[in-house]
Queue: 3 jobs
Job 1
Amino acid sequence: MADGGFGEYGLSQVRTAQQGGLAVGIVVYGYQIIPGDDEDLHFATTLEACMKDASDLLKDLRNDPEVSPTEFGARAVYECTLKMPDPATLVAFLNEHTEAIENCIMDRKLVTVVGN
């Protein structure tokens, strides 16, 4: 699979969701930035990269003396299937990112939790 010049973002590793042999979406992984908050997720192209990013965030928080221990909680990691955007959705995304997750995620399932 060609990465279209986006290999530096890990997009050469992106997998697609298949239905009847046709690509119907792109699978990415997202972890909770704030424990217990599913509204704000940080995304990566592989489960391994997502878990590493979540672990790195927890390490950084533990090393920061100004961060409350309540922020050290485990982060849920989700596998998210993003639908292929139609032109109207793509234009809306390009013009305003606030509803991107709501407009693009067609399926999400909990795959693991990263914690202590």
Note: Helices lie at 47-63, 87-95, 100-104.
Job 2
Amino acid sequence: MPLWVLVGLVVTLPPPAAADAASQRHRSALPGAAAGAVTAAVIIVPLVFGTLLWNATGASLTSRPTWKVNQEALADVRAAQDVDVPPGLWLLPPPHMEVLAISTVGPFAVVPRHYYLPGLVASDQERADRTVLFNLVSGLEPVEVREVADALDRLRRVVGVRLRRCRGGTSRPAASHGQSCGQWLT
């Protein structure tokens, strides 16, 4: 049962002192025990299984506000945005597509997050094509070169952004657009 339902049940139960004497005689101990159990569950479950707001796990102190994303992927995406890239869907590694989706409203990722695909307002074929391209860059499932070429043909405006690691950990993005997988990814 969702927590908000339990909270709603607790809130709607009248406190025993507020009920009049006539209704007190007709009530049994069961609703009171149920209210106590729900109240205890609402308090105990978040304390045992929840994460406190001020928990520092995965957080770090910074001198100025920063995005709570993979900082390397964010730097790569920002560097790629500085390159003259033709309009279209961006095909990047999965962490970079996630960062692209939440850090800008400009270019769109082929698959911002894998669980977005079922809810995407697009044809079944376009969703299937995006899945093929996602499988290509994620390596989750093998894909045939012909499948990738067909998906690129159907989607038409997919821009592959290659990210090359340079000495010192910096990235130099290069936009490539065409129909050959070899041009797209390094």
Note: The beta strands are 89-91, 108-109, 158-165, 171-176.
Job 3
Amino acid sequence: MTTVAVAVHHIFRLGPELIVPGVILVALPVVLLVVARARRSLVASVVFAALVALIFVWFGVVDGVLDHLLKALGLENLTFLPGGEAEVVATFYSLGSASTSAAFYEATGVVEALASMVMLGFAAAFVASQITAHRRVVLAAA
């Protein structure tokens, strides 16, 4: 869900040239998770966790929290991203009116922030379970 929100958010603002990177961003964590579970691979689990951490920091904190969530709470945003200082950010797509488009864009940014927190918790629990399972296998073999 997090990467879907990130993709929709950025495609809405910047246009269709982000569709392919958006699909990759959505597919990559899923593929890594499937590989990690199917092969019980600690390496794939760590790569998955690193990707999730990167997504959390960049899209969840830097873009989601420091820009959109703070704006939604009525606070001054703290982002250094281009266009973050604008009252209404120009978007490639429109939902009829500028205010509706801006509300959708800001809302997807808030979803991006909140969903990334859930994703980070899920990834931490998954990696912890993989490490525990790996330890059991190593101890059983000893």
Note: Residues 2-141 form one domain.
